[in-house]
């Protein structure tokens, strides 16, 4: 059984599309067969938004865009396409026009901000020995190790890229706050969520990688959005 709209998952910094693996399995088990996960280059907001738009354009019908972390900025920028029916933010940035993820983070720094370090090529990494405590403290050590070693570093300049026209001002929105987030301050998540006037806010007792530590409740929110849009 196919469920409408199609679900397009957008990852954030320090990971790729596979960060959604548990949510994908959870949604598929609930009857979602039209699932897609973007693999973004993390080279600039413009590049990542365009890569996401290309995937959305390949979908014949309505799309629910779901963004984790920096992926929230991407869906905010890319969600203006006419077949995007709604936006779901999972512990994610939701910048307003002229705002960037870096600016939002500097206004209220998260607990693990100091564990991010640039390399000589301008990419930003979470230090491997602090990845577990910073990004995914509620996962087991082995899973955190794999995430740390396979992390996908963004170009540092991407942090400063401003959103131009926020899609959340025109599209229905749902938001999941991670109360124990150390990569985006939880109060920043609450503030960004509230100003979007979402259909629903869910707060989980989770770290930043709630999509991996609590895939069931994350899938619940996505399913609720799909059901509301499809009704």
Question: How does the SSE layout of this entry go?
Answer:
Blueprint: E1 6-10, H1 21-29, E2 35-38, H2 45-57, E3 63-68, H3 71-78, E4 84-90, H4 101-107, E5 116-118, E6 124-126, H5 131-135, H6 141-149, E7 173-178, H7 186-195, E8 200-204, H8 210-213, H9 215-230
Parallel strand pairs: 1-2, 1-3, 3-4, 4-7, 7-8
Antiparallel strand pairs: 5-6
Helix pairs in contact: 1-9, 2-3
Q: How is this structure best summarized?
A:
By secondary structure, this protein is an alpha/beta fold. It contains nine helices and eight strands. 35% of the residues lie in helices and 17% in strands.
Distance between the termini: 16 Å
How are the strands of the biggest sheet laid out side by side? 2-1-3-4-7-8
Total beta-strand segments: 8
- Principal-axis shape equals globular
Low-confidence stretches: none
What is the number of helices? 9
Rg, nearest Å: 16 Å
What does this structure look like?
It is a single chain. By secondary structure, the chain is of the alpha/beta class. The protein is 35% helix and 17% strand. The strands form two sheets. Strands 2-1-3-4-7-8 form a six-stranded parallel sheet, sandwiched between helices. A two-stranded antiparallel ribbon has the order 5-6. A hairpin with a 5-residue loop joins strand 5 (116-118) and strand 6 (124-126). The mean pLDDT is 97.
Features:
231 residues, alpha/beta, two-stranded antiparallel sheet
């Amino acid at each position: 059984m196919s469920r409408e709209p199609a679900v397009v998952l957008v990852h954030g910094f320090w990971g790729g599309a596979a960060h959604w693996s548990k949510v994908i399995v959870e949604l598929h088990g609930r009857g979602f067969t039209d699932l897609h996960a973007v693999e973004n280059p993390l080279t600039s907001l413009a590049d990542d938004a365009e890569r996401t738009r290309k995937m959305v354009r390949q979908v014949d019908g309505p799309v629910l865009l779901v963004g984790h972390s920096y992926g929230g900025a991407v869906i905010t920028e890319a969600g203006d396409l006419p077949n995007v029916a709604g936006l779901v933010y999972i512990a994610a940035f939701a910048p307003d026009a002229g705002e960037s993820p870096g600016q939002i983070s500097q206004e209220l720094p998260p607990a693990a901000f100091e564990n991010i370090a640039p390399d000589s090529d301008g990419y930003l990494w979470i230090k491997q020995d602090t990845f577990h405590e910073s990004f995914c403290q509620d996962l087991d050590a082995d899973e955190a190790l794999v995430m740390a070693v396979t992390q996908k570093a963004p170009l540092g300049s991407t942090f400063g890229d401003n959103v131009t026209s926020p899609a959340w001002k025109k599209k229905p929105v749902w938001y999941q706050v991670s109360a124990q987030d150390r990569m985006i301050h939880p109060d920043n998540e609450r503030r960004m969520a509230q100003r979007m006037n979402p259909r629903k806010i869910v707060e989980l007792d989770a770290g930043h990688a709630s999509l991996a530590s609590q895939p069931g409740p994350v899938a619940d929110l996505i399913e609720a959005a799909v059901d509301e849009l499809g009704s």
